[in-house]
């Protein structure tokens, strides 16, 4: 089996696009969540909260021709990938275009504008808003294929569209493609663009926060007084590479991926299953050949929904015990859905390499029904970890667990 390392990382988030910009805001307890006044027209929508990226724009070198098949989600994914490739020293290297590099990338859905155009056709019978690129912008694998085409990547394309595990499955499947010798390099991650229809999905389940007049106080993962999740948007890209290939070209290694587990509950579409969550973590540890005792920190899914928080933390507590440091990043950005596994992996690796882990924002009083764990609150935590775990859980009962090792 081949070892898989990360040689590039980048993202697009509401708190900024570089770690140098993001870390001070995490330390200051900043939040990208705000009241969405433009959603007031949806009179039956209870939540008015989201984590939008304001004033997003592509750089001038993205020509009209190069973006004609890209909606917002593909644009964010492609720009994040460009920055990650540059971070890896590969952006202008022809080796990524000879078939050695593939793409494993996901989102919950395609771009909303394109979906609306087809919906309008079905309602009115008129096709005035539809053109030759509408479907390409709408399809769930729009991010993956646009990345491949934009950078001329000729390796395998693995589109992942599994709601909140789209990004983490993208990373996991890219890891396996390299580990088992199918590719030398992979672009991996996930993206999501903000849409009120996605807020409505959770609103109908009574799972959204309605603190509409106090947006910076929510979401509150694991807190006894939480009132639901807030959706966000963004993109995260990791460049994965076979270790010897990376060393041969003198690449800077940021971390190693050494374990991945993914399974499904097989019993309910929206009700989380703590036992199969724990099984996914067990599978990741077995894949890595590691005991649970070596994991120094868990980056939680932590959506601030009652059932999800309780099931996840109980599984994590059974797996690691009450001494395990854990925090969720969703208080800062909201739930970025298909992007969260990638953005949160990027952040967790940055924190591991610097020895400081951000707290769960808005966590003041841990829900006594949550598992016994060492919840990081307040000003964060200085920790020296060789291994960390990143967990994500999605609608459909899809569970993922990734294990990262600090670069030597």
Quick structural gist:
The chain has helices at residues 19-28, 72-87, 112-124, 134-138, 142-151, 166-179, 196-203, 243-248, 274-288, 306-320, 330-333, 340-354; strands at 4-12, 34-35, 49-51, 101-106, 157-160, 185-192, 231-232, 234-242, 255-264, 295-300, 325-328, 356-357, 374-375, 381-382, 387-394, 398-406.
Notes on the structure:
The protein has 408 residues and is α/β, with parallel strands linked by helices. Helices cover 32% and strands 21% of the residues. Helix 10 links the parallel strand 10 and strand 11. The chain has one domain: Thiolase/Chalcone synthase (Peroxisomal Thiolase, Chain A, domain 1), CATH 3.40.47.
Task: Name the helicity range.
Answer: 25-40%
Can you say what the CATH homologous superfamily is?
Thiolase/Chalcone synthase
Number of helices: 12
User: What is the name of the CATH architecture?
Assistant: 3-Layer(aba) Sandwich
Structural class: alpha/beta
Shape: globular
List keywords for this structure.
32% helix, alpha/beta, Peroxisomal Thiolase, Chain A, domain 1, 408 residues
SSE blueprint and pairings:
Elements: E1 4-12, H1 19-28, E2 34-35, E3 49-51, H2 72-87, E4 101-106, H3 112-124, H4 134-138, H5 142-151, E5 157-160, H6 166-179, E6 185-192, H7 196-203, E7 231-232, E8 234-242, H8 243-248, E9 255-264, H9 274-288, E10 295-300, H10 306-320, E11 325-328, H11 330-333, H12 340-354, E12 356-357, E13 374-375, E14 381-382, E15 387-394, E16 398-406
Parallel strand pairs: 3-7, 4-5, 4-6, 10-11, 10-15, 11-13
Antiparallel strand pairs: 1-8, 1-9, 2-3, 6-8, 9-16, 12-14, 15-16
